[in-house]
Amino acid sequence: MKPTSKASSDLLGADSATRTPEMFTRGSARDVTEYASRYKTNYSAGAFSQVGVGGKYFGLPQDTGPLVYYYNKAEFDKLGIKVPTNLDEFKAAAKTAAA
Question: Which helix (H) or strand (E) holds 52?
């Protein structure tokens, strides 16, 4: 793959969820679908989709580790909130805590 420009980087680390669409819209992202597709099965569908726009891919996901939420049991007990076990329960608990 040849460099795209002498004036800019050919490799960039960026927050894929927000930067990929922005760079695509500005025309500053290069379509690397041909290369990225080779590694698609190494990532979850959700992680890989964040580096693409319109069926074209502009990079590879990075740092796709798990996200952990901690809670204060005493505060949950005070508010009568049960520990959520799925997304719907999590949303309901967040609404109760914010009220």
Answer: strand 52-53
Q: Return the structure tokens found at 73.
A: 């049991």
Cβ–Cβ under 8 Å, residues 67 and 49: no
Nearest to 21 by CA among 52, 48, 47, 44: 52
pTM of the model: 0.52
Q: What is the pLDDT along the chain (99 residues), one digit of tens a residue?
A: 444 555 555 666 766 566 767 777 888 778 899 999 999 999 888 888 888 888 889 888 887 677 788 889 999 999 999 999 998 999 999 999 998
In the DSSP assignment, the letter for residue 84 is P
